[in-house]
Amino acid sequence: MTYQVLDNFLDSADHLALKTLMLGDEFSWNYHYRTTANPQSETDLDDFYFVHHFYQAYEPRSRYTNLLMPIIAKINPKAIIRIKGNLYTRTPVIKHHLDHMDYRFDHEAAIYYVNSNDGLTVLDDGTQIESVENRLLVFDASKNHHSTTCTNAKARVNINFNYV
Fold first, then answer.
1. 5-38 pLDDT tens trace
2. Domain with 42 in it
3. Of all helices (H) and strands (E), which one includes residue 137?
């Protein structure tokens, strides 16, 4: 699988603004009862996470979408499909979520890692990308991949961009 990892993606002020917002108590997170559309995840009591929809169905959904402009400008998408923040709570051992495709048509994803922790993004070929703050991972999200929880931080927080 072809992918690209870009460290120190944003300047420190832009990164700090996002991190402070998303890890702060003013930011709204919504409970989601499963991490993938796979029906197997419905029976797993530990398979849940929290999301913040910045951009959904080709339209802005959050008053904070403007803070993402430095990332959007650098990835330069033709069209944005979805942008969502993900918050996975800490678990005693790292839990691997089920493989999934974001959408079943050709598109790219960029995952921006808000905080450093021992959680992973695992690509179709088994490549494991570590969650390092201010890192951007770009890959083909129409291929299987999955997320994990973390054990060494209170939460694993990232922003998922789907675009063409």
1. 999 999 999 999 999 999 999 999 999 988 877 6
2. 3-23+30-163
3. strand 135-140
Q: Which of 120, 163, 133 is nearest to 10 (CA)?
A: 133
Predicted model pTM? 0.94
Q: Which two tokens stand for residue 71?
A: 């990332």
What are the pLDDT digits (tens) for 93-134? 999 999 999 988 889 999 999 999 999 999 999 999 999 999
Cβ-contact 101, 144 below 8 angstroms: yes
136 forms bridges with which residues in the sheet? 6, 112
In this structure, what CATH number is given to the domain that contains residue 8? 2.60.120.620
Residue 130, SS3?
strand
Domains identified in the chain, total number: 1
Full 3-state SS string of 19-77: HHHHCCCCCCCEEECCCCCCHHHHHCCCCCEEEEEEEECCEECCCCHHHHHHHHHHHCC
For residues 143 and 162, give the distance between their C-alpha atoms in angstroms, rounded to a whole number: 13
Residue count of the chain, please give it.
Answer: 164
90 close to 155: Cβ distance less than 8 angstroms = yes
Q: What are the distances in angstroms from CA 104 to CA 16, 111, 116?
A: 34, 18, 30
Two structure tokens written together for 90? 């800490």
